[in-house]
Amino acid sequence: xxxxxxxxxxxxxxxKPDEVYRQMDSFYRSYGVNPGRSGYDMCMMAGNMxxxxxxxxxxxxxxTDYNRLVFTLNATDALNLAIFGSLEKGDHAITTTxxxxxxxxxxxxxxTRSGVEVDRIPFDSKGFVHPEDFAKKMKKNTxxxxxxxxxxxxxxxxxxxxxxxxxxxxxxxxxxxxSQTAGKIPVDLQAQHIDMIAFTGHKSLLGPMGTGGLCVRExxxxxxTRAGGTGVRSAVKGHLDEYPYRLEYGTPNLPGIAGLNAGxxxxxxxxxxSIHEHETRLLTKLRDGLREIDGVTLYCQDDLTNHIAVLAxxxxxxxxxxxxxxxxxxxxxxxxxxxxxxxxxxxQIGTDKIHGAVRFGLGPHxxxxxxxxxxxxxxxxxxxxxxxxxxxxxx
Length: 395
Prior knowledge:
The protein has helices at about 20-30, 40-60, 75-85, 100-115, 130-135, 160-170, 255-270, 270-290, 320-330, 345-350, 370-385; strands at about 5, 70, 90-95, 115-120, 140-150, 175, 195-200, 210-215, 295-300, 310-315, 335, 335-340, 355-360. The protein is α/β, with parallel strands linked by helices. It folds into 2 domains: about 5-15 and about 270-385, Aspartate Aminotransferase, domain 1 (Alpha-Beta Complex), CATH 3.90.1150; about 20-270, Type I PLP-dependent aspartate aminotransferase-like (Major domain) (Aspartate Aminotransferase, domain 2), CATH 3.40.640.10. A 7-stranded mixed beta sheet has the order 2-8-7-6-5-3-4, with helices on both faces. α1 packs antiparallel against α7.
């Protein structure tokens, strides 16, 4: 079998840098004890690694208090902590139609069961939301604005600095989902006026699954929605209020955090800007190649300014799932098909009625040769496509 061409970085990065695998294995073998729960040497070493990673991630997001960087299972877990800990009955929240279900579903839950009012800002034909639309929706009882920094479907990067400035002027907490952007482009707590950054470790940060976190600006508070062990001050009956214990519960994912530490250092050694330039160069080649193919429809790819290397497309006359199966079986190309856990995006671009789109997500390990192969594979599939009513695309 030919070597796998992995174009599903939007779902997770694969393979990880060798340093990630080595760090997880060696650290867990040498110091795989419960960190921060006792004073013997192995325990102290485990705790030091967790705190070192906490500091690295805080500096990465330009935070000022590393204790306010809390580790979670993933971005979904972090977003749930932020959303459920910020909103209650009578509150108003603003989000967008470009969100992943990790934001849409918690807000829908609060809207339907807890009396929280939610407004959803649509994106334009190029895939961007506009800050002035947020200003029009802000109310006295607006308690949260939540925005997906980079779309996992169409790749557009939203103007979070401008949205954050509006929120800061009005004293409204601003939460971003950086699942697709952290590790690719700058996410700056200070410069972009962000109050809470939810991140995942297994995508562009090149760490393992089961890692993520929430970076919380000083002065922003999130209510407890859970309680449990922290390893310190065990006689206190209620869950601790101080960070990081306020939002961390139980034993942390020690080998996962060790892998995240290695992934972040790998990015810093090579330079995030250099990695993004490489991915953008490949994205441009892919976009240019695909849009020359008769019968291929691209979504929000006319201008790649303020984009990450994610591209969605369809072939006329073929279901996205069928295209993905042919790419896998006939060409050994891994990609993602369907609605990508972002149903409102597909509603706006007109692909919800045709079961979604094919998504190519590029990463630092992809090559020019792989992109050329993918373009030719799509070209061959498009030539042999079965005739079917043409799908309608509104973006």
